[in-house]
TrEMBL record:
This is Potassium channel domain-containing protein. It is a multi-pass membrane protein. The keyword Membrane applies. Gene3D superfamilies: 1.10.287.70. Its main location: membrane. InterPro entries: 2pore_dom_K_chnl (IPR003280), K_chnl_dom (IPR013099). The keyword Signal does not apply. It holds the Pfam family Ion_trans_2. The chain crosses the membrane at residues 24-45, 111-132, 144-165. Residues 119-165 form the Potassium channel domain.
Length: 171
């Protein structure tokens, strides 16, 4: 084989660059879309599945104690005959004390969305920093299924981007 046969013409190179650039754009768009959808998926599977104990102030601690007291009063009221002052106290308790200690933090905000999107990106690119991990069984199973589909697509997108750069430098 001679050197002349191995060198691509300028027209062939530009057509290869255009062809690979289109493919690269499509694969990157699909890959980024899957990463964003993965961020939503893992947010709702992992972040919304667990309850987190919130840090409460002294005022909130008083409200929590009020809730515990109201629960005990309601149990006591159900076990005994009705005393008018106890009825008034339980009615006041049920109106004023309604703050739980354990809360489900399932509000989608920018920080949590990007946290779980970063997790999806590390799974798709097989980096795996380890800052965020799936803790629930469903999250672990979905990570495996998610990786089966996104790793090949992401690697194909990266490979096409590299080929665009390679052919562009030969122009």
């Amino acid at each position: 084989m001679s050197v002349e046969n191995q060198i691509l013409t300028l027209a062939e190179l530009t057509s290869l660059v255009k062809q690979n650039l289109k493919r690269c754009f499509v694969f990157c768009l699909i890959s980024v879309s899957l990463m964003l959808l993965g961020g939503l998926l893992f947010f709702y599977i992992e972040h919304c599945a667990t309850t987190t104990k919130t840090i409460i102030s002294k005022q909130q601690q008083g409200e929590v104690n009020c809730i515990k007291l109201c629960d005990q009063l309601i149990k006591y009221r159900n076990e005994t005959h009705e005393i008018p002052s106890l009825v008034n106290l339980t009615a006041t308790c049920s109106v004023e004390c309604k703050v739980p200690v354990w809360r489900r933090e399932c509000e989608l905000n920018r920080a949590y969305f990007f946290m779980w999107t970063e997790y999806a990106m590390t799974v798709a690119t097989t980096i795996g920093y380890g800052r965020f991990v799936a803790k629930t069984d469903l999250g672990k199973i979905m990570t495996i299924i998610y990786a089966i589909f996104t790793v090949p697509l992401t690697m194909a997108a990266l490979s096409l981007c590299v080929s665009v750069i390679k052919y562009s430098t030969q122009l």
